[in-house]
Amino acid sequence: MRWSSCVLFCAAALLSCSDADNGTKPTSGPPPPPPLPTVEGLAGIEDLNPDPTILEVNLVARANTVPLFPGDETRLLNYNDSLPGPLLHARVGDRIIVHFRNEMNESTVVHWHGLRISDKMDGSPMIQNPVLPGETFTYDFVVPDAGTYWYHTHLHQIQQFEYGLYGGIVVHEKEAPAFTAERIFVGDDMRINSANQIAPFLTSGPDIGRGRIGNTLLVNGKVISGEGGEPVTFTIPRGSVERWRFVLATNALSYDLQIRGAEARVIATDGGLLPQPFPLDRVEIAPGQRFEFEVRPLPDADEVALEALILVLDENDNVVEMPFELARGTVEGEIEEAPAPEYPVVELPSTKVDAVTHSWALSGGVVDNEVQFTINGKAAFVGDTHEHVLIETFEPNVPVKIRLSSNVSPAHPFHIHGQFFQIIARNGQPVFEPGLRDTVYVRGAETATILSYFENPGRWMVHCHISEHSEKGMMADIQVGPPDEEEHAH
Ligand SMILES: [Cu+2]
């Protein structure tokens, strides 16, 4: 992987992060649930509904300018004028109602990445008509699983996604383990030109081949790389134990995460808490994926740093790994040693089962002078036609193995909507990549085997999370259970 053309821009931290709404609401009848733990890092959002089990919000997509760099406003597309969009914060079993309004001059839809909700509310451009400029759509669903999720555009995604249409979702467990503090970090990269604006989109070459890689790293909407770039900062008292949630919202860039100055464990993946946390050495994260970490500052540490390890080109054009500090907690003050968090018992669906194996070949090539990416030789055409290809039908709650193989060099972070799966092998060898996932990183010339029970009926998109790949064909549908006749009326 190259992270070339890394012109490093002067950057400063002008976006601040505010505490999320901590959700205490008046109620009558049954005793109100305890307030949600505060999650720091993203803008909050006003809850219009007094019922403590309903989060009802207004979400507006529109053009906005953000002072990413000193003295310059960068033109973006954002949710509620915020980069990232505000944090949607709920408890498992809560209802979320989003009154969405499109104030942009182009169509869009909002996808709730990872949430196993109804396909009609999934923001799939195959099921949902695009929300046209000036129009509204109300998303209404109950959140079935605790975990770290995110929302983003699912239309004209190459541009809309790069321009900033994404935000975070945290769904707390019914009985959430107690931490001294919780934080969410959303990583992104943008390609910025010399005028400090989003650089033009290329329609050929490596931008299509491997997906658009930025020259500027961001965390929670703040530029952290380049001259003047600064990590997200906060203080962390000695003796504390924190929960850090990480979402990777890049278009194509993957990196390894590590945490310095702390005893850190991986406690959750895309689909929520693990049955057994494991020590964090470094962990690779691909576009669309999430991890959660338990973080305890080391007794002698002055700071705790979250770092991305990224392959870049040095001045001799050699690929070298470089650390980028994403977030830095200065160890300040001391509290009584926090007790170990009590994690709920988590049991994952068994992977030791007889399961039929299906194969999905991820490939690409040039057809009629156009680059096309395919699944099993088929390319979906999205654009404005939303014509999708149905590649598989599954019985709900029947385990199936899928071998996802990339026969050519680019890697594909492959996402299945509305379902969880587990990664059980790579190139036929068992792997230790525990936890429920909705996105698997299929590296170039590699086969990853996943196992899913397809527990959520409906018609679901499956696609590479690199927009250049999905929008040029690597996007299809699967049907779980019987089809809904009404669904394809448009
Ligand atoms: Cu891809």
UniProtKB/TrEMBL annotation:
UniProt xrefs under InterPro entries: Cu-oxidase-like_N, Cu-oxidase_2nd, Cu-oxidase_C, Cu-oxidase_fam, Cu_oxidase_Cu_BS, Cupredoxin
This protein's record includes keyword Lipid biosynthesis: no
Tagged with keyword Oxidoreductase: yes
Any one GO molecular function term: copper ion binding
Pfam families: Cu-oxidase (PF00394), Cu-oxidase_2 (PF07731), Cu-oxidase_3 (PF07732)
Keywords: Metal-binding, Oxidoreductase, Signal
Domain Plastocyanin-like stretches: 72-175, 212-295, 393-482
Top-level lineage group: Bacteria
Signal peptide: 1-20
PANTHER family per record: MULTI-COPPER OXIDASE (PTHR11709)
Protein name, as recorded: Multicopper oxidase
Originating species: Chondromyces crocatus
